[in-house]
Amino acid sequence: MTLAVYLADPARADDLAQLVTQYSFVQIAQLPESGHVLVLDAQRLSLHSCGRGAPGPVFVDFAGGASDWRRKHGGGRGQGVARACGLKGGATPHVLDATAGLGRDAFVLATLGCRVDMIERSPIAAALLEDGLKRARQSAELADIVGRMQLWHGDAAGLMQAWPASAPEVVYLDPMFPDTRQKSALSKKDMQAFQQVIGADIDADALLAPARALALGRVAVKRPRHAPYLADARPGFSLEGDSVRYDCYAATGSAGVSLPG
User: Fold this and answer.
1) Among candidate residues 90, 129, 124, the one with its CA nearest the CA of residue 106
2) What pTM does this model have?
3) What is the pLDDT of residues 66-84, one digit of tens each?
4) Is residue 218 part of a domain?
């Protein structure tokens, strides 16, 4: 999906030009009365919902909010994503997060010492994530962590089939799942707006086979707890939480090696 971008700070005209060139965004001269728009101001790039009662903006902030809390108090290697990716007994695998989104789980893994490649096909999500990474690189506290994170913009299935870098030990998949929960249980309004703009990954089933072929050790898939298996493929084992489930699959490539469960 292509989105308009509004320049709120003229001093960032060069940054805007780069966004337009890299992601084919369309620049607009004023904010719309409704809909969604990217806003580039002095602090950050953010996704805004316009109109009466609209939720707040969506942006990537590794130095604050949920990401900062998880870094400091999230439970370390005991977190579900860490266990699913095999961070056990000192293992710190190279992980490819093939559905990076806003990079939240990738940041957790990088915080725990993993080198994390990230693929994001949505230009909107990729632009927001790259903006968050750039700002985090300016932080002495976070520079080493985000230095282990590399973003690739493109189609995950195609990239995994012709992966241009070293093969990861783990491929992590967290496809955006259509939200069928009751209204009271929905995510916060700002993230609902983000999900509406990005859309569900209706072709997510096609990611499992190339992920298993690329990974050297395993593929970990994050799903809503009661969701069907990805591609209807039964995993080797699953880790269940209160609301999510991690399904873990053995690699199928000829170079595959097992990681500790």
Assistant:
1) 129
2) 0.90
3) 787 788 766 788 899 999 9
4) yes
